Amino acid sequence: MPFNSIFAWVIKKRIHQIDLFRKYPIEVQQELFQRHIEMGRKTEFGRKYNFDQIESYKDFKEKVPLQYYEDVKPWVDRLMEGEQQLLWPTDTKWFAKSSGTTSGRSKLIPVTKESLEDCHYKGGKDLLGLYYHNHPNRKLYKGKHLIIGGSAEVNYLSSDSYFGDLSAIIVKNLPWWAEIRRTPAREIALMSEWEEKIEKMARSTIEQDIYIIAGVPSWTMVLANRVLEISGKSNLKEVWPNLELFMHGGVNFEPYREHFKRLIPDPKMNYVETYNASEGFFGIQDEVDKDQMLLMLDYGIFFEFIPMNEFNGRQSKNTIAIEDVELGVNYALVISTNGGLWRYIIGDTIKFSSTAPYRFSITGRTKSYINTFGEELIVENAEHAMAEACSRTNAQVREFTACPLYMEGKDKGAHEWCVEFVQFPDEMDRFIRILDETLREINSDYDAKRYHNLVLESPKVNIIQKGTFDKWLRSIGKLGGQNKIPRLSNDRKLVEQILQTQKDDVSIENK
């Protein structure tokens, strides 16, 4: 039987299972919760928090505290030393590298066999399965699937234990049915030097028959531009005529949408959004031409939600299960996973557009941030880098804010800063260089995007006149009190308004 026919048969069975949790979401989550509690009772974490006394979700909320990565890190450190049965009863030997923490350069998220197979791999299969379901009679397995993933580093504490980007862990453990169509070769896919990696990916895939591309939009654009340079073609359809699907996630796709339409000028090209992170695979766009994603309820993840108008970090009092969510409310997402994370505040916020089934969109982060290019820059990073730049150039800053400068054609992205100085730096170029270098030192994802200017170029700094920030606050009725200038924004709205305020002031002065 042809492989596509076998795959279609398997997919039909899986669609039936997806339909079950669409129809019975509360029951599926309740059953998963009970299994998690049983597994947790076999762990040191479960003994510490009296899982043997937990019979209900109410008990769970009362006995188990909400957690950030800083709370999980001591457990992870012990796991990396070789201890087991700490957070999950089966062995934990893999650790997915992710950035965005105040206590270290990168987070290392524990990955178990269950979370790899029943969550991440399951998500990959469902992504293709739902696509087949929405586009019958496709022959995607005739061609190659170009996966633009991360690098892998060996954890030398054990011969069979290692850490790296989640995508690298997935590639190193892919089942045969996925490996036979994946490209580029594993030795290229796992390279850590991105400049060489992009070059080799482009040259090794340019003559292949690519049907699917999967990756973060920013890196995909870098690869696409290099492919076009090498081939001399004007768009990707001239290089890969059978290309029909781009599976993307990790950052907001809207700033990239028009660029991809120019890269792939085909009205039949399909784009599917996913919500997957090092901590788990949470959602898939299951309907054509609708941006909402289906919350995947049978991946070994028990979901909780905190209304953002009541959010107070790990001190938040009002956490609810899925049966109590309301449409249009902004929620902070809390997860308990088969990777050993318990009541973990992931830092993302979502809003439901439907509860039958549960469909949602990502609305942002619980904290101010920039993640347009996958750099996951958080306020703590920005404030630390600004303080370092000021200290080493004898500068003083009153206010600042930053936002992305989007990629345009072959132009790279960047971060644009607006800074109001009390005392100017001894040398502005050195100030910018230290700001950039410090961010690279403390944020590994930012560093990767800045490597050889592949995705991000050096920051652009606008000197803002004294009083401009205050005038902007006054214009929106928020001058004084506890109102503050947002340090980071993931869009350009605030920075454009600040620059316009300054421009208007200059125009008035010149009259």
Care to describe what's here?
The protein has 511 residues and is of the alpha/beta class. It has two domains: 3-365, Rossmann fold (3-Layer(aba) Sandwich); 369-510. 40% of the residues lie in helices and 22% in strands. The protein has 18 helices and 20 strands. The protein has helices at residues 3-23, 25-40, 44-48, 57-63, 69-80, 113-134, 166-172, 176-179, 186-189, 194-205, 217-231, 236-239, 254-263, 379-393, 428-442, 444-450, 468-475, 493-510; strands spanning 92-98, 107-112, 144-147, 152-154, 162-164, 182-183, 210-215, 245-248, 270-277, 280-284, 293-295, 301-307, 330-337, 344-355, 358-365, 369-370, 377-378, 396-405, 414-423, 460-463. It has an eleven-stranded mixed β-sheet, sandwiched between helices. The protein has a four-stranded mixed β-sheet with strand order 2-1-5-4, with helices on both faces. Strand 14 (344-355) and strand 15 form a beta hairpin. Helix 1 (3-23) packs across helix 2 and helix 15 packs across helix 16 (444-450). The chain is globular and about 70 Å long. The relative contact order is 0.10. Mean pLDDT is 89; it is low at 100-104.
Search tags:
511 residues, alpha/beta, Rossmann fold, 2 domains, eleven-stranded mixed β-sheet, four-stranded mixed β-sheet, 18 helices, 40% helix
Counting structural domains, the number is: 2
Shape: globular
From the N-terminal CA to the C-terminal CA, the straight-line distance is 80 Å
Provide mean pLDDT, rounded.
Answer: 89
Question: Which architecture of the largest domain per CATH?
Answer: 3-Layer(aba) Sandwich
CATH superfamily of the largest domain: ANL, N-terminal domain
Task: List the strand order in the largest sheet.
Answer: 6-3-7-8-9-10-11-15-14-13-12
Radius of gyration: 24 Å
Strand content: 15-25%
Q: Structural class per helix/strand content?
A: alpha/beta
CATH class of the largest domain: Alpha Beta
What portion of residues is helical?
Answer: 25-40%
Number of helices: 18
Number of E-type strands: 20
Quaternary structure annotation: single chain
CATH topology of the largest domain: Rossmann fold
Uncertain residue segments: 100-104
Largest sheet: 11 strands, mixed
